[in-house]
Specification:
Structural class: alpha/beta
CATH topology: TIM Barrel
Number of strands: 13
Strand content: 5-15%
Number of domains: 1
CATH superfamily: Aldolase class I
Strand order of the largest sheet: 3-4-6-9-10-11-12-13
Distance between the termini: 32 Å
Largest sheet: 8 strands, parallel, barrel
Order of helices and strands: EEEHEEHEEEHEHHHEHEHEHEHH
Radius of gyration: 20 Å
Shape: globular
CATH class: Alpha Beta
Helix content: 25-40%
Length: 371
């Protein structure tokens, strides 16, 4: 029995052994942008999960672009060296392809970590000045962000390009640009957060201009075979906000530029969003982008069951399935999915003896007797 979920796929010059993606998941556990032993443990065990691709959490391209002081960063020789060491340690034990999500938090920066309230950090307690397309706060009690002028936009474009070059040197095999969840590039895309009067605001064409410039800067900074994709929020789930039609037009513009994939999420921009959360509630957006553009798409959002994931792929709604909370809860989700769907999955040889007798070829190996 063949399984669509365990078919290989190629993005750009990268071969991926199956369609399961470990989504970027912020851990808020870095030190001055550098990964810690927590990242080695967290990413190390997920690298043994059998997933086809793992993408590191949102990694800030500048210090002020961090959501919290505990965010990963890639803006200096020190952060680059630390991520290089982390990748080398993981790769000694796992062949999983590894990507990185490059990000800038914009007006959502300078907050406490979630387990310490998540509220904005005052300037006199270590917080920092946030930037945004327009002087509109994320929440009414937040400080007004400073609107980016043209030199400021140029600095951020250049920071994304420089971080992309560092990512390549560090050994990442894929780059995802974070244009979703209310962070800086999403703030440019949405009319709720972008009220500029210059060439970067107003019409949908103008609001997409800076995100496209950032994509172009990253694409130009890395080798042509390295896949560069984009995560978007397809809708703000709020009146007069970003909608699916604008997202599809944006995806078409990215497709013309050679964008390797679209990772389609939603929401995150405004506290007034109304999201009808349910199983697979965001899949329809990935399907719409795929229908309109033909681009490889990643579906996300309460995809928790193997047969649910399989049906999304078989029906042509998406090309890959991304897991976040689900794979934290069950780090062997790909093993269990492969067993249920009659497929094989990669597993470290040290674990081959865990293969249940009823799934003798789950790991693609012959049975190993207990000693």
């Amino acid at each position: 029995m063949s399984s669509a979920l365990f078919e290989p796929i190629r993005l750009g010059g990268l071969d991926i052994p199956n369609r399961i993606v470990i989504s970027p998941m912020c851990q808020y556990s870095a030190e001055e942008g550098r990964p810690t032993t927590w990242h080695l443990i967290h990413l190390g065990h997920l690298a043994l999960s059998g997933a086809g691709l793992m993408i590191l959490e949102a990694t800030a391209v500048t210090p002020e672009g961090r959501i919290t002081a505990g965010d990963l960063g890639l803006w200096s020789d020190q952060t680059e060296a630390a991520l290089t060491r982390l990748l080398a340690d993981i790769r000694r034990e796992s062949a999983i392809p590894i990507g990185i999500q490059l990000a800038h938090a914009g007006r959502k920066a300078s907050v406490h970590v979630p387990w310490e309230s998540g509220a904005q950090v005052p300037l006199d307690e270590g917080g920092w000045v946030c930037v945004a397309p327009s002087p509109l706060p994320q929440a009414p009690a937040d400080r007004l962000p400073v609107p980016l002028d043209l030199p400021g936009l140029a600095r951020i474009r250049e920071a994304f390009g420089a971080a992309a070059k560092r990512a390549v040197r560090a050994g990442f095999e894929l780059i995802e640009l974070h244009f979703a969840h209310g962070y800086l590039l999403h703030q440019f895309l949405s009319p709720l957060s972008n009220q500029r009067q210059d060439q970067y605001g107003g019409s949908a064409e103008n609001r997409t201009r800076f995100p496209l410039e950032v994509y172009d800067a990253v694409r130009a900074a890395v080798p042509p075979q390295l896949p560069v994709g984009v995560r978007v929020s397809a809708t703000d789930w709020a009146p007069a906000g970003l909608d699916l039609d604008t997202t599809i037009a944006f995806a078409r513009a990215l497709d013309k530029r050679g964008c390797a994939f679209m990772d389609v999420s939603s929401g995150g921009l405004t506290p007034v969003q109304q999201i009808p959360v349910g199983p697979g509630y965001q899949v329809e957006f990935a399907a719409a982008v795929k229908r309109a553009t033909g681009m490889p798409t990643i579906a996300v959002g309460l995809i928790t069951e193997a047969r649910q994931a399989e049906e999304i792929l078989v029906s042509g709604q998406a090309d890959m399935i991304a897991l976040a909370r689900g794979i934290l809860y069950d780090p062997r989700w790909p093993w269990h999915a492969a067993a249920e769907l009659g497929a094989e999955v990669r597993a470290p040889k040290q674990y081959w003896r865990s293969q249940p007798r009823e799934y003798k070829r789950l790991f693609g190996t012959t049975s190993i007797e207990q000693r």
